[in-house]
Amino acid sequence: MKAVKTEMGGEVFPGAEPGVELHEMHGLSRSFPPHFHDHYVIGLITGGRRRVHLRFPCGGEGEAGFSGVAEAGDFIMIHPFEIHACEDIGGSSLDWKSLRLSRESVLPILGRTEGSFPPILRDRKLRRLFELLCAAVKEGGNRERQRELLAAVLRGLPRKTNRCAGKRRNIPSPFPDILRWLAERSERPSLDAAARRFGVDKFVLLRGFSANFGITPYRCWESMRLERALDMLRRGHAPVDVAAELGFADQSHLTRAFRKVFGMPPGVFRRLKRARGIPGG
Prior knowledge:
- By secondary structure, the chain is an alpha+beta fold.
- The protein has helices at about 105-110, 125-140, 145-155, 175-185, 190-200, 200-215, 215-235, 240-245, 250-260, 265-275; strands spanning about 5, 10-15, 20-30, 30-35, 40-45, 50-55, 65-70, 75-80, 85-90, 95-100, 120.
- The strands form two sheets. It has a seven-stranded antiparallel beta sheet with strand order 1-2-3-10-5-8-11. It has a four-stranded antiparallel beta sheet with strand order 4-9-6-7.
- The chain is globular and about 55 Å long.
């Protein structure tokens, strides 16, 4: 399958199996702000190192979070809706390849209770399987072979019942309601408006939301909006229409926000999907 080149020194290869993409990045020097996706990411650092921050979506101030250094040869595992960020160490560049997997591609293999994977992992046998799968995706075709290798990779990952086991606690009011309120907003939410809506001081709201979810209200809303943009692009909508529908000032505004998180402009992502001929893949 022909790759789609990104603007960050990398390429994207669509898998023959729906919901599977291979991303390769070379010489990456930038950091990534806190954000989340609606899919799994299994990434392998092939050169350089990064400090990784994960916040598991289970609430609790100072709980259920992880920070650590990942180096060449390490896997990084990210779950759907898990807030994550990374930063460079000492200005080193990063070489990285990752598989982005929809839940629909993972659940049939691991079952409905897919559990969770360790944040950082080093495993030679797993790396061999991962490299074989990446090579199969790059070669294209042979969907059955890709499916077999994907199953081998996923089943080779150590799993826990839940990353949040023993750490989960109820998120206090009104923060779950604020999260739902953000999800309903098409225009940029105002901290003052949220404070008035829920009857709390805006600085208390900001600190409490960030402590419980590991992300600011604005960054959370922006991640939600970008996930909606991804979904629209998957279904074949043009970037200009996505920008108008989701309240971006214009297509350029969408492009800047999209590129900052996903490493490519929305038009490139849409061409990747159209190249497969599977709009919702």
